[in-house]
């Protein structure tokens, strides 16, 4: 077997006009590893933020440090969303494998730099944010070209299966990272970056030795104005949404902040300019004509809505487990990131169980019904979570998140196959990047959308609940009113990071004036979760109803039928 996979063997086979019979499996294995490492890296930081901030001696709940927290969380996804189309287009022009291989190498080098952070405090946070941005460039190179490499390597009859393995591994990686991050952060926060290094080295060497371009390559010019306006517009828009969840001028959220408004409206205007430019240039980075292919347009709409719903679910479940359920069931706050990841394993199992099977079956019976059915299963699970009590029975919770994962697995591969098989072969890199842009932008949007809805839900009931709970434990009315009037986003971030904020809100002086029993109750494991569980559920109702609506609309979009453009005919890939 080893001899058949050597570089010379592949070159000889390719020069003869047909791919080596094993090449497609090498491509599948390596691109799946690339997708896995790129998506694990996103969520491994998400779950490890408390350990990271403790490691660099920075209080993430301090008002001045909230921006560090947001950019640590958002920077990777934002840069990935901005660059995947450009890097997919460059893959079409200069070789998908060439861009993909460079991405693996860059990802590995930046993982080493991240693990060697020499600074504390704000300097340490800026080091991590800067290198995470560069790491996102490498991750975007991997994500933008992996689906295109597989589409080139596999024949149409096996493409859904191959994309199913690849895409589901990528999506499952975002949940595997939750468990892995919890385990490694318990040992050493730097280990969450060390784990990428050996995998990255192996994957990089393997990719450079084994992968070769088998698809069409079309020379062209780099669309500099398109790239600049797309990057500027999308960055401004998504950054505006991100900062909109922060308090401003006495308001619980920042949607009246002039900088947020400038980001939202200015970003939308620049994206409008980008669309105009793309209709005027010879070699656009974003071939807008692809949206005339109904299967491509509807598949990307469904993918965007599914990504927003999935991202919102991920964040809400982490808050629910770390901030409420686990402390109520006796877990120390320091342990909650690890156990939140463990208790979310049914979600990952559901993805892994359904994804490859759905890809295989969609090759035989068509992708539309599987994609639509998967989103309807997700909507059903959101409805079940909607009626679940805040202090739930774990087995009911596990069944519902497994069902959600199952629905996501049923949707992912057929949707990707539907999108990628609908486009001309020479534009598969750009199409792959466009698909990844919608997916990554959906994750960023989910934070802004769902956090905003959750804050809106908390704003109606949390202040009075917090006021009453504090005064019942002997906190002076003036202090209780002041604390209750603080923006609820701080409470939400505390729950998201597995913190009990009551001690820091009251301060040692005020706690020292209270009876010892009251002080112990206020700072214990159960007071804060009991206090916020009711208001949290109010916000959760709003969030899950929106997720249900998005899933249903996405299912309808998945059923849209439409012929491909004449130049989109399949070029048969080698079997």
UniProtKB/TrEMBL annotation:
Membrane topology term: Multi-pass membrane protein
Domain named Major facilitator superfamily (MFS) profile: residues: 27-502
Keywords: Cell membrane, Membrane, Transmembrane, Transmembrane helix, Transport
Record carries keyword Cell membrane: yes
Gene3D superfamilies in the cross-refs: MFS general substrate transporter like domains, Multidrug resistance protein D
Keyword Membrane applies: yes
Chief location category: membrane
Protein name from the UniProt record: MFS transporter
Location(s), subcellular: Cell membrane
InterPro entries to which the protein is assigned, alphabetical: MFS, MFS_dom, MFS_trans_sf
